[in-house]
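Hi Prof. W.,

I finally got the Coproporphyrinogen III oxidase prediction working! I wasn't sure whether to trim anything, so I left the full sequence exactly as given:
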Amino acid sequence: MNNTNPFIYSDDNKRYHTLNYYNKSSFNSKVFKAVIDAGFTCPNKDGTKGTGGCIYCMGGSGYFTEKSDGEIYDSVKRQLAAEKERIYKKHPDSLITAYFQANTNTYAPVATLKEAYTAALDFGVHGISIGTRTDCLPDDVIALLCDINSKTRLTVELGLQTIHDKSAQIINRCYTYDEFLEGYRKLQESGIRTCLHLIDGLPEESLSDMLETAKEVARLHPAAVKIHLLHINHGTALERLFLSGGYVPLTRDEYIDIVISQLEYLPADIVIERITGDADKRCLVAPLWSADKIAVLGGIDRQMKLRDTYQGIKADVM
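And this is what came out:
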C-alpha cells in the first residue's frame, strides 16, 4: 500500500490485487506465461458435447490427432524454448510459467496429458497453468494433476464465464453451473490452485446478472480470477449474431463500470490475473475500443480512485 491508496495488496495506484503484485510479493520476480498449444481438442468441438465450440470461439481443431510417443513431449519443449527466447529478450531475469491454453488441456488420455506436462517440468519452468473445463476432470486426471501439483506451482484455469445456465445455453458452453461446481470442488478438495475466467457482456445478460456471477465467485473464493470482455471476432457464430443485429456489445464506460462493481464484491486476497482481454486487431470485429487495452486499464484506475473504492470493499455485505 502507498500513501494515497487504501488497498492493502498494492504498492502502486492499483486498487485491485494484480498478478504483478502477487508475483513480486510471492517470488520477488516478474513471472511471464509461455503459451503452449499441445494439440488437444475440446468436447464442445468434437461432437462429444457439441460442435463449433462456444459462440465466441475462433479456432482450434475439432479433433485430437494421435501422436507418436515423444511427439507431444518434443513439441512442448520446442514451444517453451521459443517462448523463453522471446521473453528473455526483454526480461532476462524473469521466471516462466508454462500455460497450456488452447482448447481443453485435460481432454486426452492420461498418458498423453502426462507426456505434455512432464515436458514442461523437464524444461524447468517456474510453474504450470492448465486451461480446461470442469466436465473434463475425471478422477484419473485429478490424480495426475495432484502429482503435478506436488512437483511445481500448478494452477488450473476454468472457463466459468457465467453462473447463469440460460446464458451458458446461448453461448453454447455445453455444461451447467452444477456441473461446473462438481469439477471445481474436486480441485478444491485436492488442494489445487484454481483461477476462474469470467466474461462480461454475454448476450442477454444484465448488470444484475454479471454482479450475481461475481458475488457467487466471491463465495467460491478461488485463488484467482480473470475478467474478460466479450470480443466479437471474425468467423465466429457471435459475429453472425452481431451482424444480424442480434447482439450489441458493451461500451467502454459500461465495461469499466461493471468491472469495478464486480471487483468491489471479490475478496481482496483473490488475485485478479486479468481485468480485460487482449483483443487481436487482425481478428477483431467489435467493440473496436477494446483494442486499446491501456485506455481500458487507465479508465478502471481513474474511476476507482474517483469513487474512492477498491477490491473487496463490499465483500462482507453480500
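The two ends are 25 Å apart (CA to CA). Does that look reasonable to you?

Thanks,
D.
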